[in-house]
Amino acid sequence: HVHVHVLPRRAGDFSRNDDVYEELQRHDKEDSPEKWRTEEEMAAEAAILKKYFQEK
Fold first, then answer.
1. Cα–Cα distance between 48 and 42 in angstroms, integer?
2. Catalytic residue list
3. What's the mean pLDDT in 24-52?
């Protein structure tokens, strides 16, 4: 299982660099089950991403 946040940044986007963590905490509190993806949607995404993580 992997869980990541991809957060594009720009110079000066937060006046104090560590403020990004407070923003992430606020964002995570807004999460609700109604916004969650279905098992089918996540399986489809996993199938797409799987090729990038397989050993060659």
1. 10
2. 3
3. 84
